[in-house]
Amino acid sequence: MPTSENSALSVSQLRKIASYQLDQLPAVVIELGEVFANAGFELALVGGPVRDLFLARPTHDLDFATSAHPDDTERLLAAWGDTHWAIGKEFGTIGAKKGETIVEVTTYRTDEYDPSSRKPLVQYGDTLEGDLTRRDFTVNAMAVRLPSREFVDPCGGLPDLAAMVLRTPIEPERSFDDDPLRIMRAARFAAQLGFDVEPHTMAAMEKLAPRLAIVSPERIQAELTRLMTATWPRRGLELMVYTGVADLVLPELANLRQTQDEHNRHKDVYEHTLTVLDQAIALETGPDGPVPGPDFVLRFAALMHDVGKPATRRFEPGGQVSFHHHEVVGAKMTRKRMRELRFDKQTTKDVSRLVELHLRFHGYGDQAWTDSAVRRYVTDAGPLLERLHRLTRADCTTRNRRKANRLAAAYDDLERRIDELAEAEELAKIRPDLTGNDIMAILGIPPGPEVGAAYKFLLEHRMEHGPMSREDAEKTLRAWWEAR
């Protein structure tokens, strides 16, 4: 596995950071602990927020565990907060908001899973330590009691945090068997935190990966999305491929290893794909730029852009290898996979369209494009143009510096021409020079297929020859109509 950019800290250093971070918690959080204590109940900040306190990471979600049962929790939160909700009450969770602070409070639990079910059987627990033991990883199984601020770590999460290691609180086989989604979470946290997975835990991921079949596609999709938009998605993806999880969740990525070629007749498509992903991430912009990172559409398109290669690989005379039309095949495969993972229609459409278009630029540097070809490039990309720019540039992974410079210069030239044409013609808003109503009035025809055919002809003419005056557009339309 690759090394992360995180630097390991000692346990004592982590404790100092956490102590400082605890002092920064909103006063209403300590107040909430006092509300529960005064009512005779325990309350503790748990899970990710505690882990992030030690790592000095921003904490957006405040999750608490309590000895109070949901009815008591709801009563206390109703009195404490400005508003509260009980959407997760059947799982023991009540939410509330006071000022700008949002909290979720869950009754101590000891979840059990039916081996054939996708939903846990919720059973309430008696102790904070028992609740922490049922969590996914030791670094997420730490707590801070409130209002006393006592640190609780029954599973050794702090040493694992210092070592930057993901380990399950109980035997990993049992943990993953109880909740198979934790296998995906291991990959996601590797991508988010830059941590390694402890070998025994990694072996259990591989052994129990088939259990993911009982997890709903929506939950797997949510974890995959978090992984892809994390700081180090490559780490999580490599872990999925290494453990065989990708064979079940994202087989198109795993299958790229089939194109590895010991004879060096073409590049390693799997490694190339991960490099393209890294390079696409590097081309994302800040919040005010055209492609603010993390951008899931760009990243997933980079990951899927060559998935059509295994199915289209052909060995040509002379020892060369071809992948003709792999972009078209890859777009279809991408669309199918995203539908199976229940991605929304627009995201699916955008990613698969980028995969389909990612080769369109190739050949530009060898043969000058007409203005018409440039217009078509922009029109076909539509609102995805800025992402297509970045995907195309990221797709250059050659070690031949001269070739890389030539490709970069060619794309610089294409972008320059796009900017020039856009300024002259407002390229992104290309429409025929006559509207549908104009066409019907000039030709004296009612609404119907003939209007659509005329509209399409005028659009094609505009793409080929640029804008016309209204008078010229009418003459062109009449000439086309008479010729029909």
UniProtKB/TrEMBL annotation:
SMART domains from the UniProt entry: HDc
Domain of life: Bacteria
Domain HD: from-to ranges: 269-421
PROSITE patterns xref list: HD
Coiled-coil segments on the chain, per record: 404-431
Assigned keywords, A-Z: ATP-binding, Coiled coil, Magnesium, Metal-binding, Nucleotide-binding, Nucleotidyltransferase, RNA repair, RNA-binding, Transferase, tRNA processing
UniProt-listed GO biological process terms: RNA repair; tRNA processing
Gene3D superfamilies: Beta Polymerase, domain 2, cca-adding enzyme, domain 2
GO molecular function, a single term: nucleotidyltransferase activity
UniProt xrefs under Pfam families: HD, PolyA_pol, PolyA_pol_RNAbd
Cofactor names: Mg(2+)
Keyword DNA damage: no
Keyword rRNA-binding: no
Designated name of the protein: Poly(A) polymerase
